[in-house]
Amino acid sequence: MRVLIVRIGAMGDVLHAMPAVSALRQRHPDWFIGWAIEPRWSDLLQITGDPEDLSQNVGPTARGMVDRWYKVTAGEWKREPFSGGTRSDIFALRKVLRADQFDVCVDMQGSVKSAVVGKMAGATVFVGAAEPRERIAQWIYRQRVDVSSRHVVEQGCELLGAAVGETLRPARVALPMNAEAEHWAHDVVGRERFCLISPGGGWGAKMWPAERFGRVAAELGRAGVRTVVNASPAGSREVDEVVEASVGFARAVPCSIAQLIALVRRAGVVIAGDTGPLHLAAALERPVVAIFGPTDPARNGPYCMRSQVFRDAASVTSYKRGVEIEAGMLGIGVDEVVAAALEMLGQVRG
After folding, report:
1. In whole angstroms, what is the distance from residue 25 CA to residue 159 CA?
2. Of 45, 67, 200, 337, which is the most buried if we count CB atoms within 10 A?
3. Where are the domains of the chain?
4. How many CB atoms are located within 10 Å of the residue 315 CB?
């Protein structure tokens, strides 16, 4: 069987799809599994490759989660929808997908663009959710699946399982181990126990105030725990505010996806909102303290055992991309987040 997964982005969503794909790989190690994804997220995928290539952590008898990934430059297409380069990219993607002759294609994103990419593959079985994120996408699928699970990880298992005619349960995810990134992370943090804070959130409504993250870092620092703040190579205003509010107890660490994986793998605890690095920490089975507001943690929360999730009773579930911080998030205090982090670290405040 040849199966194509379409989950173009973003980081958290890709990570939420992985337990289903990992379950499929474990059950059918001989199947060919492809994944259509934006290049910026491809470093999250463990690819079957040369056993001598340490960057993929694939042994002589092991297979990665996927056999091949397919470049979907959706961001560039959106910026220049009518350019010759966009047309060329789309035709090239369609050609390579058709050449790999997929039996089954599953759109695990539920958007119009992901449905269109899936249709390009020309698979005999093309499956999507009966109620996708963008309703018009359902008319592009050949088969629609009703999903009843609450959490998106379990929904992914329902969807992919229905596509291949089997029952799938979420499986442990193996993320790539890039040797160069692992050395980099060792140089950055050594063997000390540390907290990683990720203040981003995709959109403003679900971002806890950066100043509060900084105060958390300051309190942890006074308790003997240093903090690194996840930053993009380009930097951000939120990261700068966290570092400033930490009064010297936190530092920004710009990193690539491969470097972020290596850094999170070493973290004693990760504190974040509903954002990609939080879900990366859950996939790597690191302790997490999650701060939620408009998005429902029962649906989108960290899918792991070692977590504490904060959500104020005043928060109202909404997936609209609001700019202003959701009012309920302001009901979550610094002290309770610090206490949870120290508990995760096995410490008791004096």
Report:
1. 15
2. 337
3. 2-164, 179-344
4. 22
